[in-house]
Amino acid sequence: MLDQPSDLATGSTPPATRAGRRSGSGRQPRTDWRLGGRTVRAWREGLLAVALISLGIALLAGTLIDTLWESPLAGPVALALMWIGMLVPVVLALTRSRPIGLLRVRWIDLLYGVALALLLRLMQGWLAQGLGGDRSLPSVTLVDGRLPTSWWLTDGLASIVIAAPLEEFFFHAVVLVALYTLMRRPFGKTAAGVVAGLVSTALFVTLHALAGGALPVDQVVSLLLLGLTCAALVLLTGRIWGAVIVHALFNATWVVLVVLGTIWG
User: Fold this and answer.
1) What distance in Å separates the CA atoms of residue 245 and residue 170, rounded to the nearest whole number?
2) Which phi and psi angles does 37 have, rounded to 5°?
3) How many CB atoms lie within 10 A of CB 259?
4) Phi (first) and psi of residue 28, to 5 degrees
5) pLDDT, tens digit, for every residue of 212-242?
6) What CA–CA distance (Å, rounded) separates 200 from 179?
7) CB neighbour list of residue 104: distance below 8 Å, 6 or more residues apart
8) 51 and 59 Cβ atoms separated by less than 8 Å
9) Nearest to 201 by CA among 168, 158, 237, 163
10) What is the pTM of this model?
11) CB-based contact 201:74 (threshold 8 Å)
12) How many Cα atoms are found within 13 Å in the side-chain-facing hemisphere of 23?
């Protein structure tokens, strides 16, 4: 004998069906942005256009300031403008809606982040050795026997706490999700994921090439691997935080190497 009557026996409606009816479509509510739904409807071509235009204007303004303004502040101001150009679309996107599951946090994301960041940093060192890059530790010029404050503000701590999360939210949340959502129905999930991952990574590498000038081959390849890894994490897990951790720790290891190289140099 059953302890409780079944839904069939009692004539009641199963919870999943009731939820589907409440949604107005007869379907179960979507629990992941990769399945589409109302939480990504605003993340399509309009948002993608805003993101690219905002970044383009910021890059143009930053380049003009860096070229025409003969001041030590020109570089930091240009960098700040670039960050603002990425921040505006991110804020706009998250104000419109939050793709379901994208901002979830799981402990496994920390494991992914640590393991992949260390692996990518090791690969960057191997690439520097194999492709003829600079084999010595990176370093900066000391000011009064210590690392300059300007370096910490623009390249050191800022690369970890500002650049890494902001770039991930721009390229692998806004751009990637918008492209994936736009292409999922006409081309299918696999094709949409591949294209979104490749395009967002290409934009990520291009931004660093434009902002950093002519980059050595090993750095370009390292940036490409970092971008592809972070894009793949977002597409495979549906969450952004693993990518943020990978990027932040990848930058953090570079900061550690700079400090060590400056001290030992």
Assistant:
1) 15
2) 110, 180
3) 16
4) -70, 145
5) 777 888 889 999 999 999 999 999 999 999 9
6) 9
7) 238, 239, 241
8) no
9) 168
10) 0.86
11) no
12) 15
